[in-house]
Write a structure and sequence with these properties.
Layout: E1 3-8, H1 16-25, E2 32-37, H2 45-53, E3 64-68, E4 79-84, E5 87-92, H3 101-104, E6 108-111, H4 128-142, E7 151-153, E8 180-182, E9 185-193, E10 199-204, E11 213-217, E12 220-223, E13 236-240, E14 245-250, H5 255-259, E15 266-271
Parallel strand pairs: 1-2, 1-3, 3-5
Antiparallel strand pairs: 4-5, 4-6, 6-7, 8-9, 9-10, 9-15, 10-14, 11-12, 11-15, 13-14
Helix pairs in contact: 1-4
Length: 273
């Protein structure tokens, strides 16, 4: 049974997610559809990029991943599909895939301009998730050849490792900042804030994991720890999260609220000698 995953900012209060699933199962009711999340903050492509980056690798390598956070829906932005040995990825060409591209080494990318595999020849200008992405994903998971989905996009596969990552002009990328290291200080940036209010930076574990550090934000001194429970309830802690990035948390609370921080804000980490 082939798997399709869905990642959107649609929420669960409206019918949009259910309608997408109906569009998929109307083509092949034997497909397994799994929700990654539908609680991406509205129009937040950067958050969607992070969540896709941290979820795709847990699925079989023939999984079809549909990611739709699409504030440019109906505009001239392209609808694309990506083929790789790590899976297939379908969604808007708006930077949502810029986190995974360096890791999956795409073998082909196509623009989804073959209306044979859309739900209808004239799709809605506001719901490409239903009319293009969902049916294309269903057809692909059912066995349609990838090359039939549309026109191939030329790629420059000479991609530097992540992070940092710059793609060029062939696919859209997000203008995200990379961490900066100078002497015993590392300046990172917040790339995601999760449901628990944990602050996830773009500082990877491989440059700090064996070191001792401290973080100062305003009047707060935030120590290094291994678990949330290493500090008392209501206290701040910094640690390497399960995703492999430096994280700032508040034991039984929301660190982002306590520190009044948001996506894109900077974090200064000092390595203790």
């Amino acid at each position: 049974m082939k798997i399709i995953t869905l990642l959107t900012d649609f929420g669960l209060d409206d019918v949009y997610v259910g309608v997408m699933k109906g569009a998929i199962l109307g083509i092949n009711r034997n497909l397994q559809v799994i929700d990654i999340t539908h609680n991406i903050p509205p129009q937040n492509i950067a958050a969607a990029r992070f969540c896709l980056l941290n979820s795709y690798s847990y699925f079989p390598t023939d999984t079809v991943h549909i990611a739709v956070v699409d504030p440019g829906v109906g505009s001239c932005r392209r609808c694309i599909a990506i083929k790789s040995t790590k899976g297939y990825f379908i969604g808007p060409d708006n930077g949502i895939f810029s986190g995974i591209i360096p890791l999956i080494n795409p073998s082909m990318v196509v623009e989804l301009n073959n209306s044979k595999y859309w739900r209808i020849p004239n799709p809605s200008k506001t719901f490409h998730g239903r009319d293009i992405f969902a049916p294309v994903g269903a057809y692909l998971a059912t066995g349609v050849n990838f090359e039939e989905l549309g026109t191939q996009i030329d790629l420059n596969n000479d991609v530097p490792p992540y992070p940092p990552f710059e793609r060029g002009e062939d696919l859209v990328t997000l203008p995200l900042k990379s961490y900066q290291k100078k002497d015993n200080e590392i300046t990172g940036f917040i790339q995601y804030i999760d449901y628990f209010g944990n602050i996830i930076t773009n500082i990877p574990d491989n440059i700090i994991n064996e070191k001792n550090w401290v973080i100062k934000i305003n009047d707060f001194i935030i120590p290094k720890a291994n678990t949330y429970n290493d500090v008392k309830i209501g206290e701040l802690v910094s640690l390497i999260g399960s995703h492999g990035w430096l994280e700032i948390a508040l034991n039984c609370g929301k660190a982002a609220e306590k520190l009044s921080l948001k996506l894109g804000d900077s974090i200064l980490l000092t390595i203790k000698q």
